[in-house]
Task: structure prediction
Amino acid sequence: MSRLIKDYVELDNHLSLDELISRLSEIRDAMPAEAEAELVMRGDDVFGRHLAVSFLRPLTAEEAAVEGRYGSCPVKLRAVA
Result:
């Protein structure tokens, strides 16, 4: 079974409603069935807010190679007193 990671697609702030619906439809059609996509609003009052689509996707070949090299390294945890 391949591992899925969470990724994001951010949408432009200055879209008309028709453009937003069209863009969301394009994004949905390009995603795999197991994507579990969600539309979220990100940001804050200081830097502004924007819409983003979060979804799950399989690892790319490059990400899988790095995962293969470093994913099996034993991690030693030490207790903090």
